[in-house]
Design goal:
The chain is of the alpha/beta class. The chain is 51% helix and 8% strand. The chain has an eight-stranded mixed beta sheet, sandwiched between helices. Helix 5 links the parallel strand 3 and strand 4. Helix 5 runs parallel beside helix 6, helix 17 packs parallel to helix 23 and helix 20 packs across helix 22. It is globular and about 90 Å long. The termini are far apart. The relative contact order is 0.11. The structure holds 2-acetamido-2-deoxy-beta-D-glucopyranose (2 copies). One 2-acetamido-2-deoxy-beta-D-glucopyranose binds next to helix 24. It is found in: Golgi apparatus membrane.
């Protein structure tokens, strides 16, 4: 009796819960209110003190020079922008929540009776994304703690590369050893590369026979890796190997990356009796797909690849849950899929959830996170704030979808998905060859003609960050989404290890996001009436990254130049108008420090984060703004740059030693070093001038704000000066860039400002 009662109430318990983040809500709102009032005061000050108008004598010391009017107006516009942007950023700090799952309850209620799950891994280029990286991701998800007959893994290879196929073929053989190995030794993480990097010797607790097994598997992995790397070095697969699988015959000499037929190979099929591991257990299905490419057809990048996979997988396994991961993001938690199911399968609250997004995390972030790849504030604060308004941003990787919603289903109140889907008996009887034949046509270039694919169905086309638009569209169709950020990270990727890579990545993201803002998908108009205002604002924080570049450049250049010339732009310290400036600057800085520390950053990390934000605004955002405007005017086509994931050892060493990597003559570096040089010159020049010729304390009192601004800019740029003047290694700033920046900084000093 008693036990039945317990299991009865057990049935009522939710599979996940939502908690408010611990940061005090009311306190924060009061604090934000006080900042808002002071921002308004700053605007009032600027608007009422325009030089040349009667009231201008109020704050600024007019014994010193008076700035030209454009300087003042520029500051006013910058401050208006910063203020408005600050208001936007309040949305993601207003209502933060955190999600927790109960996998034990899921297991109790459903056992192994779980829905089918299809996992998509996308790769685009075997040189930029090495096949060994790809198969480690594949193996990590094949080894999920999940019923293998319900699990299918699909690779989309947009590089159409025989080498990637070969690596996958090797992985399919190795998986027979790897999956039972993971179960036997409770291996975590289940990417062999990551595991053997962390555990290089058999764990001391093992017995003799186990040690032998352990070492055998490790050796098997290393042999496989060496064979794959040898093939890559050779640039082709040997004839010997090609005889082992029929799939290799697809690669005729005419095939190129941009022109080939659909290549679809089912390497392991769950229903095939021979697909068992070394313990005799069934293996998950594994499918290789290189969709058809023809030069006259647009292939729509990753969105096109995912849409092909959606169709092909619907024919082969038709899992109700679809997970998409990037090929460089292995799964760090073999139970992640079960976590996601806790959301979808919750009886009371799960029916309206379209997708569950896990954050992006990286496994090779250095100690003080020089390039700000840790994303701690974004992952722990900002995204949880969006979730609080009913939406997570679909970031394209580490995201679990309900197949029906990503394929275009609209939400209706009475919708309930049945998780016990039967396989169509006729489809189930087909042989692998028949299956391959039937699903192949779904990946042809012409298949999507006159269909809703790329529009209402699947991922949307026509924008470099198609995932974000797709997520927004799903939310606008009435669905809910979840942001799930557990303590132990679900997915770990490879972070950029050079400054160039880091900045280009942000350029690409910000450009795509800004295009969304300018398109019909602008969250304010497209989402109006469909999603909450807070969520619309939240999206726009990211969509409006690029326009931040101009006010930032203005603020980092003009006040410093005025400092050099002894022209005050801010109220003097004894004026009451000084207070709002000091309050806004001081309290927002302190709060950002507090926020960073509260999510686990160190002070150095916070400082590095600020440096990178300055760099991003000066370069990535500037370039993406300019490129977007040029494109809007109809001048150039979208080009998609993938950031390379391989660099040489010397660069890696500098990365590990946390030295900024410049090294090439990128225009981005020229801008960064020009601003750095300019601020150093103006700081020193301004100080000398006011000490030697200046009027003592009075002058300093009027210039204090600019001194602080300029001084902080110099401090944040200390590593840039090192790279400019002191470092001799190949990662230093090249001589040409140095000369250019000194020249440009000198020119800037000649700009007439008074
Ligand atoms: C990855 O998983 C391991 C367990 O295998 C865990 O110890 C580690 O903390 C996880 N990494 C992150 C970044 O959460
Ligand atoms: C510090 C660290 O973990 N660095 C690793 C980053 O990722 C590369 C792979 O591209 C490794 O080789 C590094 O060791």
């Amino acid at each position: 009796m008693g036990s039945r009662e317990i299991s009865g109430s057990e049935h009522e318990l939710p599979l996940f819960e939502t908690k408010e983040a611990k940061l005090g809500k009311l306190g924060y709102r009061l604090f934000a209110g006080s900042i808002f009032v002071n921002i308004c005061l700053i605007w009032v000050y600027r608007a009422t003190h325009i030089p040349g108008t009667s009231s201008s004598s109020l704050g600024v010391d007019e014994e010193l020079g008076v700035p030209k009017r454009w300087v003042w107006i520029g500051l006013l516009l910058s401050e208006v922008w910063f203020g408005l942007y600050w208001i936007l950023t309040q949305s993601i700090r207003w209502n933060n929540i955190k999600r927790y799952t109960f996998k034990d309850r899921l297991a109790l209620r459903y056992g192994e009776n779980l829905p089918g799950a299809d996992i998509f891994v996308c790769t685009a280029d075997p040189t930029i994304e090495p096949p060994t990286l790809v198969i480690n991701t594949v193996l990590s998800v094949m080894a999920y703690d999940y019923p293998p007959d319900k699990l299918s893994v699909y690779i989309s290879d947009d590089g159409g590369s025989e080498l990637t196929f070969y690596a996958l073929y090797e992985a399919s053989i190795f998986s027979r050893h790897w999956i039972p190995f993971c179960k036997e030794f409770k291996v975590e993480p289940r990417s062999p590369a990551a595991y053997f990097a962390q555990v290089s010797d058999p764990p001391p607790s093992l017995k003799n026979q186990c040690i032998k097994d352990w070492l055998t598997t490790k050796r098997l992995y290393e042999y496989m890796k060496n064979r794959i790397e040898a093939a890559i070095k050779l640039g082709k697969v040997s004839e010997e190997i090609k005889k082992q699988h029929k799939g290799f015959s697809e690669w005729t000499p005419e095939i190129t990356k941009r022109d080939h037929q659909t290549i679809l190979q089912i390497l392991i099929h769950g229903r095939d009796a021979s697909s068992v591991d070394t313990d005799g257990n069934q293996l998950p299905t594994l499918v290789y797909l290189a969709r058809e490419k023809r030069s006259q057809h647009s292939h729509n990048f990753k969105a096109g690849a995912i849409n092909s996979l959606l169709r092909v997988s619907s024919e082969i396994s038709n899992g109700q849950i679809v997970l998409s991961v990037d090929c460089d993001m292995y799964s760090n938690d073999s139970k992640a899929l079960r976590d996601a199911l806790c959301f979808f399968m919750d009886e009371k609250k799960g029916y309206d959830i379209a997708f569950v997004q896990c954050p992006q995390n990286f496994n090779n972030v250095t100690k003080s996170d020089l390039y700000a790849n840790g994303f701690r504030v974004i992952n722990n604060v900002e995204m949880t704030g969006l979730d609080g308004f009913g939406g997570s941003i679909y970031s394209g990787t580490g995201c679990f979808h309900r197949r029906e919603t990503i394929c275009g289903r609209k939400f209706t109140e009475d919708y309930r998905e049945s998780w016990n889907q039967e396989i169509d008996p006729i489809k189930a009887k087909r042989s692998i060859t028949e299956l391959e034949k039937a699903s192949k046509v779904l990946a042809d270039c012409t298949y999507e003609e006159n269909t809703q694919w790329g529009n209402e169905m699947g991922l949307k086309y026509g924008c470099p960050v198609e995932d974000v638009i797709t997520g927004l569209a799903i939310q606008c169709r009435g669905w809910n989404s979840i942001y799930f950020n557990p303590e132990r990270k679900c997915f770990l990727g490879v972070a950029p290890v050079t400054l160039d890579q880091a900045l280009i990545q942000y350029k690409r993201w910000s450009e795509g996001l800004f295009q969304i803002f300018l398109s019909k998908y602008c969250p304010f108009t497209y989402g109006y009436g469909k999603i909450k205002l807070g969520l619309q604002m939240g999206y726009c924080i990211y969509c409006l990254w690029p326009p931040n570049s101009f006010p930032t450049i203005f603020y980092l250049v003009v006040p410093s130049l005025c400092f050099l010339n002894g022209i005050p732009l801010f109220p003097k310290m004894s004026s009451l108008w000084f207070l709002p400036f000091a309050y806004v600057f001081g309290s927002t800085s302190l709060y950002s420090l507090y926020e960073a520390l509260s999510v686990g950053d160190t002070i150095t990390e916070w400082w590095n984060l600020h440096r990178i934000w300055v760099f991003r605004r000066l370069t990535s955002f500037l370039f993406s703004f300019v490129d977007t405007v040029i494109r809007q005017l109809g001048f150039s086509q979208t080009t998609f740059v993938i950031t390379p994931k391989v660099v040489d050892d010397e660069v890696l060493k500098r990365y590990e030693n946390e030295m900024l990597e410049f090294g090439n003559t990128s225009p981005m570096f020229a801008i960064i070093s020009t601003v750095a040089v300019l601020n150093l010159v103006t700081l020193l020049g301004g100080l000398i001038k006011s000490v030697i010729f200046g009027g003592g304390i009075g002058v300093f009192e009027s210039l204090i704000s600019q001194f602080i601004l300029c001084g902080l800019t110099v401090l944040v740029n200390v590593p840039v000066y090192e790279a400019l003047f002191f470092r001799k290694d190949n990662g230093a700033i090249p001589f040409f860039v140095m000369v250019t920046s000194i020249f440009l900084a000198s020119l800037a000093c000649l700009i007439p400002i008074s």
